[in-house]
Amino acid sequence: MLEAGDRAPEFTLRAVNGTPYGLRDALEGGHHALLVFLRHLG
After folding, report:
1. 6 is in which domain, residue-wise?
2. H or E segment at 38?
3. What phi and psi, each to the nearest 5 degrees, are found at residue 29?
4. Structure confidence by residue, pLDDT tens digits, 1-41
5. Among 4, 6, 11, 21, which residue's CB has the most CB atoms within a 10 Å radius?
């Protein structure tokens, strides 16, 4: 279980066009990333 302040583990998702896009890609060049987890409520 991650705790507040822990680094997120590396993961890769697919962009809308099917291109793989990883967390490391999002953080290149000192950029920040905000991870939002939505829970299915239906």
Report:
1. 1-42
2. none
3. 75, 20
4. 889 989 888 889 888 899 998 988 888 888 888 878 788 77
5. 21
Task: Give how many domains the chain has, as a whole number.
Answer: 1
Tokens of 40: 């299915």
Residue with tokens 């829970």: 39
SS3 assignment, position 26: helix
Whether the CB-CB separation of 33 and 23 falls below 8 Å is answered with yes
DSSP 3-state assignment of 21? strand
Amino acid letter, residue 9: P
Cα(42)–Cα(13) distance, integer angstroms = 24
pTM of the complete model beyond 0.85: no
The identity of residue 33, as a single letter, is A
